[in-house]
């Protein structure tokens, strides 16, 4: 597949990725996410795709139906009725029996077809009739789920963040590059017209040299973030495959807090950075087109919700190949965020609402007219799913592709490393390696 924003030597990254069956441990250790002696991810040979006829329904499997996965499943099983795409959810997988049984029954009821349920997602992937899989498992599972799906010849929609570490992101990117498969990252803000309009303005030179971008994702709660309800029925055994849930994270004794509220724990989630800030950063990285991140630093702490393993306040500074800086604030203990603004030498783009407002710098006010580009409101998650389904039919590049996801994962991985170690990190897009600054 072709991707945008290649390094100066387009073969260097691809050769590096293609030749790397196992990734070196030194770079991965920067994030603290990989335990000593843990196996690195091999890049699989892509499997053969299931044929899809022009008038044939797209057959989908959903892996993970808790929370966001359940919402994806509900919308997919009702998509055909909207007339926008002919799709069937024919298989569902989840490690929790009540969730699996409930969603299989719901999918059968709505679609009036047979729907199979699997506790082990690999059994779902083994079905030769499935065209694509939607992955909505916890962050630490995304890479292995994705690579197994590619090996099975399935097109993939994977919830954000694309992976847990940047090394995993490089493995997924390499596997996709070696295949003819569609890979969509579930960052739905990329469907908003304002980011595409901003990209056009930047590329046309309307704001001059882009210099600094700011954005944030901030929210607040009394007791703390990600305190999802606990289902006392879900314990290892008949009701829950705990070992299957842990997967690549390695075995540990069952902890119902970890299973139900995993976003609070750094072993399974990057908290604010991976869950919230990815939403805001991804469409801006797309719009700016400033290449790969080259320097990342972050600071933060546990200022209010001290019982949470992950931070409740973070602040990131990111520099890019084409000489641009982005600052990003994130909080789960104060809801007042930063307005999204792209600053240029000649003018600025204000993007806090649905529209884009171009406002000149004072010294250019006589030459550049302030204007507003109106953009329609959309149901972004459904639009992203429909874009993926359309790409399964047309084999066109999806709107939130694997290389964009990999760029964002470099930011996420190095920002998290910076938060936990107190060091800034540099990334070299030519060697795809990182080091302390």
How would you characterize this protein structure?
This protein is α/β, with parallel strands linked by helices. 33% of the residues lie in helices and 20% in strands. Strands 14-13-12-11-7-10-9-8-15-16 form a ten-stranded mixed sheet, with helices on one face. Strands 3-2-1-4-5-6 form a six-stranded parallel sheet, sandwiched between helices. 49% of the residues are buried. It has two domains: 10-186 and 382-405, Rossmann fold (3-Layer(aba) Sandwich), CATH 3.40.50; 190-223 and 269-378 and 414-436, Dihydrodipicolinate Reductase, domain 2, CATH 3.30.360.10. Residues 1-16 and 18-39 have low confidence and may be disordered.
Spell out the key features of this protein.
single chain, 14 helices, alpha/beta, 10-stranded mixed sheet, Dihydrodipicolinate Reductase, domain 2, globular, 6-stranded parallel sheet, Rossmann fold, 437 residues
Outline the fold blueprint.
Elements: H1 10-19, H2 25-29, E1 58-63, H3 68-77, H4 79-82, E2 87-93, H5 97-111, E3 116-118, H6 121-125, E4 132-135, H7 142-151, E5 155-159, H8 166-177, E6 183-186, H9 193-204, E7 210-218, H10 242-246, H11 256-260, H12 271-288, E8 293-301, E9 313-320, E10 324-331, E11 341-344, E12 347-350, E13 356-360, E14 371-373, H13 380-394, H14 402-421, E15 425-428, E16 433-436
Parallel strand pairs: 1-2, 1-4, 2-3, 4-5, 5-6, 7-10
Antiparallel strand pairs: 7-11, 8-9, 8-15, 9-10, 11-12, 12-13, 13-14, 15-16
Helix pairs in contact: 3-5, 7-8, 8-14, 9-12, 12-14
